Amino acid sequence: MVTGNSAAYLRGLPIKLRPELDIAVPNEHGPIAVPHVKSFRMADTASVTKEGLRFHHLGGILHVIARQESVENLVAVLDALMGPWRRPAELTRTKLDQLVAAGPKVHGWSKLKQAGALARENVASPQETRLRLALVRAGLPEPVVAYPVWIERFGAHIHPDLAYPFAKIAIEYEGRHHFELTEQVLKDTDRYYELGRLGWTVIRVTALHEMDSIVLKVRECLNV
């Protein structure tokens, strides 16, 4: 069955595909000597079938990925599973904690535990994950994900990607569609105007920005 990096990629999670196909085999099996295939001997080989492919169960996939990926890459995957990124949320905070606790205490487990502690619900994109982690890594307070701000004119809450509510700072990561789609441009303009009326400072971030420059802007706005 497909597991690890291969399974995560095929399931649409934000991970760079590795050249080898990762498969899980029962502990009693020896290694599989097939070119471009990497086998992982596992005690738990429960599986699910999606679109005709047999996948290792989610906990197994995550424990294999933890052997392969950095903590930051793991957090991006976990954020995607707990947020609206390309899918309804597949995991809750509680379920993730249970998966980590129930997993085998083998190579990669401590890394998965660390990533689990850093993962957050309601993250809309892997770029937002990396931005949040960069701010924390720089020694800044952790921003709140998708903080609700009531806009009277809209009769609804809006949810900046990241926010420091105590300082009224909103941070928005803007991908290409924020500039190419007329409807999105108008929506963003209205959102930022309303946030400004309420005294919020909006820091807009794109892929062209150097992370150090964003950290500096946030630090200046927080006056820390």
Automatic annotation (TrEMBL):
Highest taxon of the lineage: Bacteria
Gene3D superfamilies: VSR Endonuclease
InterPro entries xrefs: Restrct_endonuc-II-like
UniProt-recorded name of the protein: DUF559 domain-containing protein
